[in-house]
Amino acid sequence: MLLTEIDHVAIAVKDLEAAIDYYKRAFGATVTHREVVDQDGVEEALLKVAQSYVQLLTPTRPDSPVAKSLEKRGEGLHHVGYRVADCAAALESMVAAGATPIDKTPRKGSRGTTVAFIHPKGSFGTLIELVQE
Ligand code: CO
Q1: In angstroms, what is the span from residue 65 Cα to ligand 1's centroid?
Q2: Which of 53, 72, 75, 98 is deepest in the core (most CB within 10 A)?
Q3: How is residue 112 annotated by DSSP?
Q4: Residue 130 CA, ligand 1 centroid: distance in Å
Q5: Alpha carbon 15 to chain centroid distance?
Q6: Can you give the CATH number for the domain in which 42 is found?
Q7: Distance between CA atoms of 45 and 16, rounded to whole angstroms?
Q8: Measured in angstroms, how far is the CA atom of residue 79 from the centroid of ligand 1?
Q9: C-alpha 78 to ligand 1 mean position (Å)
Q10: What DSSP state is assigned to residue 101?
Q11: What is the pLDDT of residue 73?
């Protein structure tokens, strides 16, 4: 089994501050990491849950993929991050199994991780992110 943990569940929101405030009031959650990822045009806030995270995600520019997703599908579940020991090996395994990669090779993700995204088409409708810490 290549997956070692659910790294994060990413939820696209229009108002990051309102979403953080809601998770604080509803769950007593605290933000453990916050980052603007310029390459992806997003700002994210991570709320730690055991060894995983809830990742609240909002676009920082109108042409970012998350902005387009919000426009098309509205707020809600955007992708699931699966933690792996070796992102390149997991990507190769997924492609061999028929997955359509968005990233042909692993790249830099937030909080110093190495990541690769897999298209929902061919993965039963879920945008998958492979995350190596
Ligand atoms: Co992610």
Answers
A1: 12
A2: 53
A3: G
A4: 8
A5: 17
A6: 3.10.180.10
A7: 8
A8: 7
A9: 9
A10: B
A11: 94
> How many Å apart are CA 53 and CA 73, to the nearest integer?
22
| Separation of alpha carbons 88 and 96, rounded Å | 12
Number of domain units in the chain: 1
Q: How far apart are CA 9 and CA 2, in angstroms?
A: 18
| pTM for the structure as a whole | 0.94
The 3-class secondary structure across 46-87, one letter per residue, is EEEECCEEEEEEEECCCCCHHHHHHHHHCCEEEEEEEEECCH
The list of the chain residues with pLDDT below 50 reads: none
Per-residue pLDDT, 27: 97
Identify the residue whose tokens are 């190495």: 114
**What is the model's pLDDT at position 108?**
95
**Residue-number span of the structural domain to which 20 is assigned:** 3-132
Q: Measured in angstroms, how far is the CA atom of residue 8 from the centroid of ligand 1?
A: 7
Question: Which residue is associated with the tokens 């039963």?
Answer: 124
**pLDDT of 94:** 97
Cα 132 to ligand 1 centre (Å): 11
Alpha-carbon distance of 133 to 87, in angstroms, equals: 9
